[in-house]
Design a protein that fits this description.
This protein is α/β, with parallel strands linked by helices and about 475 residues long. It has 2 domains: about 160 residues, FAD/NAD(P)-binding domain (3-Layer(bba) Sandwich), CATH 3.50.50.60; about 250 residues, Polyamine Oxidase, Chain A, domain 2 (Alpha-Beta Complex). It has 18 helices and 16 strands. It has a 7-stranded mixed beta sheet, sandwiched between helices. It has a 5-stranded parallel beta sheet with strand order 9-2-1-10-16, with helices on one face. A two-stranded antiparallel sheet has the order 3-4. A hairpin with a 5-residue loop joins β6 and β7. The radius of gyration is 21 Å and the shape is globular. This is Phytoene dehydrogenase-like protein. InterPro entries: FAD/NAD-bd_sf. Pfam families: NAD_binding_8. It comes from Mycolicibacterium fluoranthenivorans.
């Protein structure tokens, strides 16, 4: 019987292990932490019974994942839940732009920009199931649906700030810019539209869902599926050298590229070693979880219906803060992503105390305390927020990287999504999952299609490993 070792038990490591195990491979997963899941974990951080997601929290790319859809995770008690409004972007003065699952409902709220929003997204959303077959893997490949991909791909080449000029109103431009900011890149850089367009299109097709009971429930369902197919999981096993790896026909790493370079050392070809060692990481996330009595007192009540809220002001302000963090400067008013998962999943709350998730975009490896800056952004759009906070838990960029070593310097995207790394992954090759050593693969969020709980990096890498085993 063929065998495989997967190092790292995040969503991609589990996806790789499941893909291999379903094909009859004997699989062992080695996870350094005492709990599986990587960035897809949850826990009670502040008040007993109050559920907070550790990192991955809102899942527009995962809910439509072909890999996850094929597993029937409901058999293991897993459920998706959706908020009434996917995302809100409040503006100074009390207004807000709202992103609904429906393209038409979103367009209806954007006034004179509604027709432009519909023109940009209606077509790709209608073709998303075909489109996802091409965008949820390596970008450089022979497409299954070339015309569909070409129509979607043309605007992704633009800087997000340039594409946002399509919109005439500050609300529509800020709504698009806030989603594009998920790339943690200056918005005047080429291809910064790509992630924003991908997230919005996927969200319009499948919604910005949350996992019932916390993101940990997705990990638990994946682990149960792996066990069902005979896979073994060993937690508390930190791999630091190749000598620690059990004998196996294939090895896959759900790790940051620099960690893989350290583990494999001189087993790697020189060119591959150089690329992995010089892999570039992006800005960090400074996370603050709150326990809030009665919820956030948003000035605009529509923000109180949204599972995600972006606090960043208008497009110009978002662009300026993303430039600052990329340059290593901490802005006074950082871009803050807020999660109100309890609106879709009320079981996360305890009575009238609700878990509110947030993180600020900060420079890579930021060593300061951004807590007051985060609270300041809440107060800006929700006066009186501070008075409702009954507890909070802070995780700095350093603590993020200790909690999950893949988040180097607090980089929750597992690498800077510049043009080269977005297209190729960690090294310039048409085979981004291969490490240059036969039977050895990288399957983390550093590879295409990138970060998220969708599992496609792991599934794609495992497909290559299976092809190698069948030779």
């Amino acid at each position: 019987m063929t065998s495989a070792v997967v190092v790292g038990g995040g969503p991609n490591g589990l996806a790789a292990a499941i893909t291999l195990a379903r094909a009859g491979v004997e699989v062992t997963v080695l996870e350094a932490a005492d709990q599986m899941g990587g960035g897809v974990r949850s826990g009670e951080a502040i008040v007993p019974g109050l559920v907070h997601d550790h990192c991955a929290a809102i899942h527009p790319m995962a809910v439509g994942s072909a890999f996850l859809a094929d597993l029937d995770l409901a058999r293991h008690g897993f459920r998706w839940r959706w908020p009434e409004v996917d995302c809100a972007h409040p503006l100074d003065g009390g207004g807000a732009a709202l992103l609904h699952r429906s393209v038409d409902d979103t367009a209806a709220g954007l006034g004179p920009d509604g027709a432009r929003w519909r023109a940009l997204f209606a077509g790709p959303v209608g073709r998303f199931d075909r489109l996802s077959q091409d965008i949820m893997g390596p970008l450089l490949h022979v497409p299954k649906h070339p015309l569909t991909l070409a129509r979607f791909g043309a605007p992704t080449l633009l800087p997000a700030a340039a594409l946002a000029r399509l919109f005439r109103t500050p609300a529509a431009a800020a709504l698009f810019g806030g989603v594009a900011a998920h790339t943690f890149r200056p918005l005047h850089y080429p291809m910064t539209s790509a992630i924003g367009l991908g997230i919005i299109t996927a969200g319009h097709r499948h919604g910005w869902a949350v996992a019932e009971g916390g993101s940990q429930s997705l990990t638990d369902a994946l682990a149960a599926t792996l066990s069902e197919h005979g896979g073994e999981v060993r937690t508390g096993v930190r791999v630091t050298s190749a000598a620690q790896l059990p004998a196996a026909d294939v090895v896959l790493f759900d790790l940051a590229p620099t960690a893989v370079a350290d583990i494999l050392g001189d087993r790697l070809p020189r060119r591959a070693s150089r690329s992995l060692s010089k892999f570039r990481y992006g800005p960090g996330a400074f996370k603050v979880d709150f326990a809030v009595q009665g919820g956030v007192p948003w000035r605009n009540p529509d923000a109180g219906r949204a599972g995600t809220v972006h606090l960043g002001g208008d497009l110009g302000e978002i662009a300026a803060t993303e430039r600052d963090i990329h340059a290593g400067r901490m802005p006074a008013r950082p871009f803050v992503l807020v999660g109100q998962q309890y609106l879709a999943d009320p079981g996360r709350s305890v009575g009238d105390i609700h878990p509110v998730y947030s993180y600020a975009h900060v420079p890579h490896g930021f060593t300061g305390d951004a807590t007051e800056a985060v609270i300041g952004q809440f107060e800006r759009f929700a006066p009186g927020f501070r008075d409702r906070v009954v507890g909070m838990a802070v995780r700095s960029t350093t603590e993020m990287s200790v909690h999950n070593p893949n988040f180097v310097g607090g980089d929750i995207c597992t690498g800077a999504k510049d043009i080269r790394q977005l297209v190729f992954g960690p090294r310039p090759t048409l085979h981004p999952y291969r490490l240059g050593v036969p039977g050895t693969y990288l399957c983390s969020g550093a590879t295409p299609p990138g970060p998220g709980a969708h599992g496609m990096c792991g599934a794609n890498a495992a497909a290559e490993a299976l092809a190698y085993l069948r030779r």
